[in-house]
Amino acid sequence: MNARCLASSLLFLLAACDGGEVEPLPGEVDSGLFNSGLDDAQRVADLDSADAAAFCEAVGPYTERFFSARMEKVCLFQGSIAAGFADLGNDDPLVACENALAECRATFDPGPRDCALEGSSCIATIGQLENCYNETVGLLQMIFEHLDVTTCQEIVDWKGEKLKLSDLPSCEPIEDGCPRLDWGLLTE
After folding, report:
1. Kind plus residue range of the DSSP H or E element containing 116
2. What CA–CA distance (Å, rounded) separates 50 from 52?
3. CA pair distance 70, 78, nearest whole angstrom
């Protein structure tokens, strides 16, 4: 672990603790993974309005805290995507990255995200949805941890190894069986 990574980790821990214990959020289990508390075997399409609302009430604060703690990484990631697309289109990747980074910083809002499970035709189960959510959060966390840059110039100049990301196997049932599901993290 390099010194910058260690220092960043320590600063994050100090900021997260702010002298007291961090209260667990609704939906957060000891492992830090999201768990709505609903029956894992229940199909999303079969949720009544109370259970649909309970899922959304649990996932909202979890998602908000995840993104709030990573605002700068989220914005740098958006900048790197803008730079990549600009480079493909023969535009200036540095300008595209800086514009995306500035816009993200100015408009960043970690939550709450839209969540509307009630009336969904989604055939996936709550357990499958939670697994997909946790794997998606894990993938984002891995991307943010490997995004070891602090400026757009570093993004454009970076010659390091690119991440090789595989598909998220736990999300297949969601992608295949839940058209246009709006569940608080990713929407189609």
Report:
1. strand 115-116
2. 6
3. 12
Count of domains for the chain: 1
Model pTM score:
0.65
One digit per residue, pLDDT tens: the chain, 188 residues?
222 222 222 222 222 223 233 344 444 444 578 899 999 999 999 999 999 999 988 888 888 888 888 899 999 989 988 988 887 888 999 999 999 999 999 999 887 777 888 778 889 999 999 998 898 888 888 888 777 788 999 888 875 555 443 456 666 666 667 765 555 444 33
Beta bridge partners of 43: 125
Would 26 be classed as within a structural domain? no
Cβ atoms of 57 and 43 closer than 8 Å: no
Do the Cβ atoms of 108 and 71 come closer than 8 Å? Answer: yes
Q: Is residue 168 part of a domain?
A: yes
| Assigned domain for 48 exists | yes
- Residue 185 CA to residue 48 CA, distance in Å, equals 21
For residue 60, the enclosing domain spans: 40-183
Element containing residue 182 per DSSP (H, E): strand 182-183
